[in-house]
Amino acid sequence: MQITWYGHSTFGIDVDGESLLVDPFFDNPKTDTDPEELDPDHVLITHGHADHIGDVDRFRGAHFVSTPEIISYLTDEYGIEDGTGMNLGGTFETEEAYVTMVRADHSNGLDTDYGASGGMPAGYVVSDTKPTQVADEASQTFYHAGDTSLHTEIREVIAPYLEPDVAAVPIGDHFTMGPWQAAVAADWSGADYAIPMHYDSFPVIEQDTDDFVREVDAAGAQADVVVLDGDETFDLGDELGY
User: Fold this and answer.
1) What is the CATH classification number for the domain harbouring 157?
2) From 18, 56, 113, 210, which residue has the greatest number of CB atoms within 10 Å?
3) Domain count of the fold of the chain
4) Which residues pair with 167 in a beta bridge?
């Protein structure tokens, strides 16, 4: 599994040649990627804020996954052609991956004249094996926490049952967790690697990633912090020796 950070909360995930894209928003200072260069098979949307759906119109031909409310909104407002609506706790199976929608504590208003809600905000756990109560040591699993505050489901559900190897957590503060809460989330997730996201895109969420590194250490987390440059890829399979 290859995980590429395109800045903000935008990630590309390659699972055995199948490509998934999370929260396409390329108008951020960390990326030089032209979204027209990408051709994802699936696009996963955590919630409907503009800094998470800003470039969905570039990927109308992809298959979208989100809440039913978001899928309806993107179909009506952005002309997406293929979407699957699901809800928290559900797992969607692609050809190569299993995508489980998990809780995120945030808001989810849509940019419409009537102020509609996009339903519950979410995160995603993407794995190359089916999540079960029987641990699979050979699996590769990526947890995208979405825009969230610290919540105990990370410790009580996501860690023991979905077993992420990598956790991408927001550190920008103000709209999401800041560095110290994100460090606790990284610890609670049980992940071997923690990637900071959702920072430096606007002045109000500017952060020094060294603060996150120190907080992860202070939390006693097992995770190694991986601070990616924009457009940089982390090869999970190589790190795990698979």
Assistant:
1) 3.60.15.10
2) 56
3) 1
4) 143, 194
Distances (CA, A) of 232 to 8, 58, 85: 13, 21, 30
What pLDDT score does 27 carry? 97
> What average pLDDT does this structure show over 191-206?
98
Q: What whole-number distance in Å separates Cα of residue 225 and Cα of residue 222?
A: 10
- Look-up of token digits 């103000």: 174
Residue 91 pairs with which residues in a beta bridge? 100
Whether residue 238 lies inside any domain: the answer is no
Which of 79, 25, 40, 83 has the alpha carbon at shortest distance from 57? 79
Does the pLDDT of residue 114 top 70, yes or no?
no
Rounded to 5°, angle at Cα 148 from 35 and 90? 80
- Which of the four pLDDT bands, split at 50, 70 and 90, describes residue 137? confident
Residue with tokens 């699901």: 86
Query: Per-residue pLDDT for 26 more than 80?
Result: yes
Q: Is the pTM of this model over 0.85?
A: yes
Output the CA torsion sign for 82, 84, 85, 88. negative
Q: Around Cβ 29, how many Cβ atoms within 10 Å?
A: 11
